[in-house]
Amino acid sequence: MTDYESSDLQASNNNMSSLMQERDQLKTNLTEMTNSLTVMTKERDHLKTNLNEMTKENNKLLSLYKKNSPCPTGWNIFRCSCYFLYEGSGSWTKGRQDCRDRGADLVVIDSDEEQSFLSEFTNMNTWIGLSDRDKEGTWKWVDGTPLTVKYWSAPQPDNGNGDPQFGEEDCVHIREAGTSSWNDLSCEASLPWVCEKSSRSSERRRPVADFLSLVLLSVFLLTGLIGLRVYYYTSVSSLTEERDQLKTNLNEMTEENNNLQSLSKKSESTFLSGLSNKNTWIGLTDRDKEGTWKWVDGTPLTVTYWASNQPDNKNGEDCVEILSDQSSKWNDISCEDSRQWICEKPAQP
Question: pTM here?
C-alpha cells in the first residue's frame, strides 16, 4: 500500500469516527428532547386538571356568595355561631328538644367572650347545655365535651344543698344580666333557653381555603414550567402556548373571584327592586354606630348603591330601603317608618 493510499484510508477512518460521534450525540439529544416533552406534557395535563377543579370550586363559591345571611331569620350571630333565644319557658329537656328540632342544640360556652355575649343576649335566667345528669358532680356539655371554663356563682353548684324542696339540681342556667354567672337547678324547672348552631359563614371557609390552596398549587406548577429549558422550540411551542393560555385563565379566574361579591350584590339589588313596585326594607343599618353601616349578619358595607345625596341621616335615619323605581338605589330612612320587607334564606338543594 502506497503512502497516498494509507493516508486516504486514515482520513476515511477519521470521518467514520466523527460521523459515529455525531450520531451518538443526536441520539442523546433526541432522548433528552423526548424526556423533556414527556415532563412538560404531564405538567400541562396536571394544570388542566387543576383548572377544571378550580372551575368547580369557583362555581361553588358563586353559590355560597349568593347566601348573604349566615343565620336564619330570628337568630343572632356571634363569631362563627348562630344563637336563638326562646323566650317562652319549659324544662331543660324540653328546651334541648326544641333546639334539636331547629337543627341546633342548647348552647355550649367555651370562652370568656361567648359568656359575655350570652349574658347580654339573654338578660334573664336561661337554660344552657350543661348538666351532670349522667354522673353526679361530673359536668358535661350536650356535645359530650367536659367542663373546662367555669362561671359558677358562689357557692354553686350545690345540688340543692340537701334541701328536699329543691331536689336534685343536675342542669345549669345562666343568670340574668348583672351577674352573668351560672347556677345549678332542677332539670324540671321552667326557664327560657338558648340554642346554638354553626353559621353558614363558617361553612364557607373550607371551600375558600381549598380554592386558595389550588391557586397556590397552580402558581407553583407554572413557576416550574417557566424554569424548564425548552428543547427544539418548534416542537415545544404548542405546549408553551397552552401553558400561557392556562396562566391567563388562572389570572382571569382570580380576578373574577375578587369581583365576585361585587357582581353578586349588584345583580341582587336589581333583582330585589324588580320584586315590588313599592319601597322595601333591606337588612342594612347603622343603629349601633352612626355612619357605620352593617348588614344584619354583621358584615360591613363594602358595595354601595345609594341614591343621590344619600345617606343623609335626616331626623335620625338609621335603616335602609331599596327604592321601587328603575334605579334600584338605596335611601336611609327612620327605622320606625312603615315599609314592606323582603326575607332571604338559602334555597333548598
Answer: 0.41
